[in-house]
Amino acid sequence: MTDPPAESQRTARPDGQPREDGVKDVDRAAELRADLVEKLRAEGKIVSPAVEAAFRAVARERFLPSDVPLETAYAYDDAVVTKRDEHGVALSSVSAAYIQARMLEQAELRPRATVLEIGSGGLNAALIAEIVGPQGRVVSVDIDPEVTDRAAKLLDEAGYGSRVRVLVADAEHGVPNEGRIDAIIVTVGAWDIPPALLAQLADEGTLVLPLIMNGVTRTIGFRREGDHLVSTSVEVAGFVPMQGAGRHPERVFVLTDPNGKQVKLRFDSGVPADMSPLDAVLATERTEAWSGVTIPHRTSFADLYLWFAWHLPGFCLLTVDDGTELANERGTWFPFGAVRGGGFAYLAIRPAMEGAGVEFGARAYGHDRELAAMALVKQIRAWDRDGRHAEPVFGYWPAGTDVTRIPADAAVMDKTHGVVTISWPAP
Ligand SMILES: C[S@@+](CC[C@H](N)C(=O)[O-])C[C@H]1O[C@@H](n2cnc3c(N)ncnc32)[C@H](O)[C@@H]1O
Predict the structure, then answer these.
(1) Is 8 a catalytic residue?
(2) What is its EC number (predicted)?
(3) Is 346:362 a contact under the CB 8 Å cutoff?
(4) Residues 48, 66, 93, 95: which is the catalytic one?
(5) Residue 203 within any structural domain of the chain
(6) pLDDT tens digit string along 270-299?
(7) What distance in angstroms lies between residue 147's CA and the mean position of ligand 1's atoms?
């Protein structure tokens, strides 16, 4: 991911000026755009002619800071951060091409539709405008006026000014004066679904949002089924976090090793009531346990984290300081763990027998390290048996709906405004 200094404003590119390699920027951009579309089609992220046409029409570089190379603007999975807070945390970005394409497909947009985009930047709104056409309506809102000013200016310059309405608003409160919306595309990490947004969604409408579930995000395409929502598609992606009234800060618990270096355990919710048994745990002996579950090299196992987030009590994400034992062993573990009593375990891998890729297991510290390691290994095996072979189905039941109708095989996670459910189809 490139990291431009700040919200640098794009002025007109030197179109017509040859680059050092003698190729005009505008020609190079067209070439890269065509390559990107081919790649997105080949990877199955673009499947419809409408999304393909939009990607062929919109000049991505017009919406990126001027110091971003064309190759980055047309990269498959490079997000470009356009604003950070004082601690360096990304607040706004132009999303990667693959996830923009995928979310547009998930939203199943139609010509003439009214579409609400949460989180502005200009680029995605321009793509939406291309798909819904001149008789459609695009409303793009952002909580940050600096972002909306920039997006409105860039959209104007690119010729979309009259087709996209850009507003400052907190998604939590919806956009009450904009009427019924056919599709809502949320481009910021959401911990819950704001009731005000849901109230504006047409009965036949689609909602696409990156939903954070116990620290793990899935971009989910939802449709209504009576009084609740059911997922129609799922994608793996990360987003900048929601600000404003719907913000949900994580809880961080710091473990310090004998050299004063830190391992941070990041909990979404459900922090174990008493973390004191973990004091000085990094100075204790470590154990490991192996699951017998293997995976070939270069195969995604992102759903294992999702499984943990739903089924492993005490689940947390890890961030480690350089100089810790964990940092020195990078490549042999992944930053997902769990706390069990006085034990802390995290996901580890080792080469599998006979070139079968890697085997999953757990390493663990603390008084209850055996317990913590075995709890993690148990869930690796459960995922292997019940989760790894099929894409899960999500539901969202707003507060007030009859949750007794939630299917018995679904796991349930409480949110502020409702509950999320997950079920894993039988292998
Ligand atoms: C990933 S960026 C949006 C990218 C954009 N859709 C594009 O064209 O690539 C996420 C944006 O969400 C905005 N945001 C964060 N919290 C919000 C909220 N509660 N309501 C509206 N916008 C919010 C941020 O200010 C940020 O600009």
Answers:
(1) no
(2) 2.1.1.77
(3) yes
(4) 95
(5) no
(6) 788 888 888 888 988 999 999 999 999 989
(7) 8
Considering the domain boundaries, does residue 352 fall inside one? Answer: yes
Q: Report the atom number in ligand 1 closest to the C-alpha of 172.
A: 19
Q: Is residue 214 part of a domain?
A: no
Is-contact 284 278, C-beta < 8 A? Answer: no
In a domain, 360, yes or no: yes
Q: How many domains does the chain have?
A: 1
Query: How far away, in angstroms, is 245 Cα from ligand 1 center?
Result: 14
| Tens-place pLDDT, residues 337-360 | 999 999 999 999 999 987 789 999
**What separation in Å is there between the alpha carbon of 414 and the centre of ligand 1?**
24
Residues 293-324 have pLDDT tens digits of 999 998 999 999 999 999 999 999 999 999 99
Q: Tell me, what's the pLDDT at 21? A: 57
As given in the structure block, the two tokens for residue 132 are 């819904």
* Residues whose beta carbon lies within 6 Å of some atom of ligand 1: 91-95, 117-124, 141-144, 147, 170-172, 187-188, 239-240, 242-244, 246
What is the whole-number distance in angstroms between the Cα of residue 186 and the centre of ligand 1? Answer: 8
Residue range(s) defining the domain that contains residue 280: 251-387
